[in-house]
Amino acid sequence: MKRQTNPxxxxxxxxxxxxxxxxxxxxxxxxxNEAGKIKYMSPSILDRMDKRMGLDKKSxxxxxxxxxxxxxxxxxxxxxxxxxxxxxxxxxxxxxxxSRIKRVNxxxxxxxxxxxxxxxxxxQIRNFLLEIIKLADGGQIDLTESIEEIKKRLxxxxxxxxxxxxxxxxxxAMKTIKEKxxxxxxxxxxxxxxxxxxxxxxLIAHAIHDISRRxxxxxxxxxxxxxxxxxxxxxxxGYTDGAFTGAKKGGKxxxxxxxxxxxxxLDEVDQLPYHIQPxxxxxxxxxxxxxxxxxxxxxxxxxxxxxxxxxxELVNQGKFREDLYYRLNVVNFDIPPLRERKEDIxxxxxxxxxxxxxxxxxNVEGVSDEAMQLFYRYRWPGNVRELSxxxxxxxxxxxxxxxSQRDFRELADILQRDxxxxxxxxxxxxxxxxxxxxxxIEKVLAFCNGNKTKAAQFLQISRPALYYKIEKYAIDSCQxx
Length: 481
Description:
By secondary structure, the protein is of the alpha/beta class.
C-alpha cells in the first residue's frame, strides 16, 4: 500500500499491513457500518466466540449482522440511541466484560461505530478494583461516599465549563503554567492565581481541579465581589436551625460545606470583607468551619483564590491581612497578559473559530494574513476574553469562509486612532505641557526678534513671568535675533 501523503494526515505514516497489525492487537475490537453489519472483528474476540459458541472462524464474518455472531453486542442499540459514545457492561457465557462504544463519522458514509474492551474478563476487573482499593488506602481516591450518594451525584448531567485541554498556547509562559498544574495536581496546597481581567484565571482554576483527585466532585465557585457584605458570613460558612431571625428552617450549608471533598474557587478574593478574613484564615488552618449557631463542622476543601489586584500592595495599605495573604499564596500562578505572549494568538484564534463554528453552525476556516497582523499590532487590554468576543462578533458578520480585515473594522479603527501611541515616550502630562510651553515661547521670541516686551504681550503674560520661564527652560532668547 502506498503511504499516505495527504497533508491533512501529516501524523500518519502506516501501511495497510501495519494498520491491520494494530487493529488485530486491540482486544475485543468490533467495527460495524451504520446498519450494524460487521466491517471488522479482532482475532481476540473471534477466539473467545469460537471457544464459547463453537463459531467456525473460517466462515464469512465481514458483512454479517453483528447480532447474529454476537447476540449481546450493544452496537445496534447504541446506533439507534443517537449517543456519541458510551460504556457497556456484558455478562456473557459466565464472563463479565467492560467495553467502550464510539460513533465514527467521516467524510464518506460507511463506518457506523466501533467497540473495544476495557477489560476482557472478570479477572482483569478484579485486578483493577484491587488497584482502586490501594489508591483509596493511600488517600488518592475517596471511597467514603455511600452507594446512594454516588448514584445521586452521577445521575446529574455533567457540566464542565473548562478542562485542561482548554489551556491554549505554546509560549514559554504557558508551557511553564501547564507543567506547574500537573506538578501540583496530587497535592492539596492552597493556590493563588493572579493576572489581569480576562487573562484566564478561572480557566486555570478549573484545569487544576479537573486533573486532581477531587475532580469527581463539582468545583464550588464564589465571586467575592458579588456577595453583599452583610450576607457573606452566612453564605460562606452556613448557619444552623434557628441561628437568627429569618433563618431558613433546618439551617443552610455554606460554600465550604458544599465544597467538602472538592475545590472552592474564590474569585476576586481581594473583595473579601476584612472582618471575614480571620475566619477564612482559621478554616485554612483548622480544616473546620464555625457555622452561625455554634456548630463546628470539619471540612476537607482545597482553596484556589484569584485576583487581578496586587494583594501584597493591599497588605501594605492595611486592606488585606498579611497572614491570610501568605496562607493563600502557597502556590502562585501569575498569568501573563495576552500582549506579552502574542505567539499564542494564532492557536487561540483557531480554537475560538472551532468553538463558534459549532455554536453558530458556521464553517469558517480561519483568518487572513492581514487580519492576523491586526491581532499582532493590537495591545489586547481585555486579554483572551476580548479576543474571544472579537472573533465571535466577526464570525456573525463574515460573508466567506475566511475572516478578513474588513470583518475586524472596529479593531482596525482603534489601531488607526491610536497609531500615535506607538511613538509615545512615556512622558507625564506635566512633562508634555512643559515641552509645549517651551516650544511656544521659543517661537514667539523668534517672531519678535528677541524683543521680550513684545513677546510677553503676544503670550499675554508679564515680563517677569516671561523672564522666569526663559530661565526655567534655559531658552537662548538671542539665538534668533
